[in-house]
Amino acid sequence: MAFFVALLLVGVYSSAAGLLGGGGGGNGRLEQNSVPDEYVDLVQTWGNLCPELSPALLAAQIQQESGWNATARSHADAQGIAQFIPGTWATHGLDANGDGVADVWDPEDAIPSSANYSCSLAAQLRGVPGDPVDNMLAGYNAGPYAVIQYGGVPPFNETQHYVQVIRTAEESFTAPAAEAEPARLPPSHAAAAAVHFAQEQLGTPYLWGGDGGPEDNGRFDCSGLTKAAYEEVGIELPRVANDQWHAGPHPGRDELLPGDLVFFAHDLNDSRSIYHVGIYVGGGYMIDAPYTGAVIRFDPIDTADYFGATRPVAG
Fold first, then answer.
1. 97: how many CB neighbours lie within 10 A of its CB?
2. pTM
3. What is the pLDDT of residue 2?
């Protein structure tokens, strides 16, 4: 099983279905035996990344891109299971499994990166006329500027075929409604935007005391990142992690939503010993600025020093 069995991330993109007007991609569960066993957790987890995506849609897209061939290479030098061209991978490739390398040939990186890139496109194309899911897929195939230029799916045979094939195949990967999980509670607009801000900082080097300003070259420490993320949406947090603990109510572990702050402490009975904070993105993962020498990244929250969570509130 993959190192990270999880990132419902989101959340990371922005909200749950309906918050930002996304078309939604399905009921959230895969049909049994529709995806190779070794990729089920990856697709199920990352397929819930944003309102426009679903596990079934992500599976249909990978089926179309490579037929689940992790070593596929096209005549245009699209590489790996998700068929990234090198330039796109350089910008959107993630080290999602935390092994220190963003590897286009590793499905544990490439499948999450495909979801992340799709949701980035979806966010960029919101407001373009037409179906937001179709526009997202068209952007993946033809580039977002073609979708913007033509006000929807561009009149390219390849792109129109790509969208049609994936939308049709999506149905075969979708579990019947009776098998689907209950709909998850959407995060607030503020939480969604805070998560999006944190996602935009992925790969930024850590800086002790960093607030992300010009004097810090855009770098953050852990609580500097969380403070800046919520500052973007008008919620003022204290500067240090153990003070941020008191910035709102404390949801239980099974009540976490994307955007919640998650805390880690030396003494699990004393909030004064909190030493680290991240922004929860779903599926047992957070985005955090971990320590000197590291970069802002995804990390699991299920560790022995997990202290609890806070849901920031205005005022």
1. 19
2. 0.57
3. 32
